[in-house]
Amino acid sequence: MAWFKENAPAYNIDIEHIGVVGSSAGGHLAALLCTLLPEDDLGKPPELKVADTQPKACVCFNPVTDLTAEIELEPFFETLFGCKKMENPALYKTASPALRITGKEPPFLFPHSITDTVTPFRISQDMAKRLQAVGVEARVVTIQNQAHGFAYQLGNAEQKRCSIEVLAFLNKHLK
């Protein structure tokens, strides 16, 4: 995002109207991006001049936001980080958007199916509550009877309803 913002003029992009959207692992990355502060040094190359990497809005479909919590996805994170949570708890905490909240985050929308069997619905509820507790606009869109990854299609009424909610949210915060 720092590179993107720094080079935006060359591509005629208005950096005041950038939002991020991610699903599942992409939702985790989108949320993490929104919880980074300009003073954070998480691999930012020194040649990048732009320190503010936050977008103006964030949509996270069924993300994992607290990697320190007991969830069924722990083997995935062990592969990603090359260690178990108990071997490097600080790494897991640093990579957990829910544990990085400061109140400086952009508005969030969490579309999540209550029947998601990969990422529990409660994760989005918890992240939204944490954001709201520090004054950040955050809302969960409850989706009925959809599997993990439901947002990749517009084949049924719930998927269409979700896309309308997402577009309304992005229009509100990016126009």
What brief labels describe this structure?
alpha/beta, single chain, 175 residues, 6 helices, Rossmann fold, four-stranded parallel sheet
Set down the secondary structure blueprint.
Blueprint: H1 2-7, E1 19-23, H2 25-35, E2 57-61, H3 74-81, H4 89-94, E3 108-113, H5 121-133, E4 138-143, H6 157-174
Parallel strand pairs: 1-2, 2-3, 3-4
Can you describe this structure in just a few lines?
This protein is α/β, with parallel strands linked by helices and 175 residues long. 35% of the residues lie in helices and 13% in strands.
Structure description:
Strand 1 (19-23), helix 2 (25-35) and strand 2 form a beta-alpha-beta unit. The protein has helices at residues 2-7, 25-35, 74-81, 89-94, 121-133, 157-174; strands at 19-23, 57-61, 108-113, 138-143. It contains 6 helices and 4 strands; from the N terminus they run H-E-H-E-H-H-E-H-E-H. The protein is globular, with a radius of gyration of 16 Å. The protein has one domain: Rossmann fold.
What percent of the residues sit in helical stretches (DSSP H or I)? 25-40%
Order of helices and strands: HEHEHHEHEH
CATH superfamily: Alpha/Beta hydrolase fold, catalytic domain
CATH topology: Rossmann fold
Number of domains: 1
Q: Rg from C-alpha positions?
A: 16 Å
Strand order, biggest sheet? Answer: 1-2-3-4
Task: Categorize the overall geometry.
Answer: globular
Distance between the termini: 19 Å
Structure annotation, total helices: 6
Could you tell me the strand content as a percent range?
5-15%
Strand segment tally: 4
- Low-pLDDT stretches are none
**Major sheet details:** 4 strands, parallel
- The overall pLDDT, averaged over residues, is 90
> Structural class, from secondary structure content?
alpha/beta
CATH class: Alpha Beta
Under the CATH scheme, the architecture is 3-Layer(aba) Sandwich
